[in-house]
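Sample intake sheet
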Amino acid sequence: MFPNSDDGGSAGTVVIRSHAAGGVLYRMPTEERVEVAAFNYHSVSDGRTTLRVMMGRQKERADTHRPETFMETLWRELKAEGLSIAVIPQFLLESREFVYWDLCPDQDHPNDQAHNRHLKAFFAIRLLQGRLREHRLEEDERDAEGKIVNTEILDPPEWYDIGDLLTIMSKKSRSIYTHLRAVVGTLHRLAYVHPPVLRNYYRTVSMTAAENDKIITRSQNDRELVKAYLASLEIELAKYTAELTVPH
């Protein structure tokens, strides 16, 4: 079900502890053209600037004090990072599968890096109505104890032709590799749900052919692990909801 990176398989002892939810926000002005919203992200702590798409780390819900589900994280970050609230946005999830996902060490569990994993996963989301954020954002990144570890400055997002965006992001000084792969994965997926002309365009974009095998490599063990993690979030949500509605 899910495309995977080439990070190797997962042993049965591996547990996904947390996630980051990403959205590759795109629009199609014509059937032959795809544009993706991306922005420059500045890290104050190390002075690095990267060109990235929308992604945010899972948080605890302030109202219920339970961990967010994947979709809750996705929609919160998409609205916070990408969109103006002046116009009610309308979206379309043309594919219910991730366009790219990766498992990496979970920094919140540093004493057991061999088995604890953090899931980074991206959906491709088509914007049907809405405007991109027009102002610069400044956010504080905090550790598990609430201490500020970095300040992040997010420029307003802009629309990029997907071919141009891939060319820019392929320069490593301007891109987080996970985000680059998410954009490539989006083009790969759209090429097979839209007319052949887009498929031909996909074949002509530089560097996608070389990346393709890595991005769509499938690992049965990892795929099942990710599915189980996402299912567990929904189970916990259902359990919590039931507890709230049971009369005492």
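Comment: Helices lie at 70-82, 162-169, 177-190, 196-204, 208-216, 220-245. Residues 69 and 231 are 10 Å apart (CA to CA).
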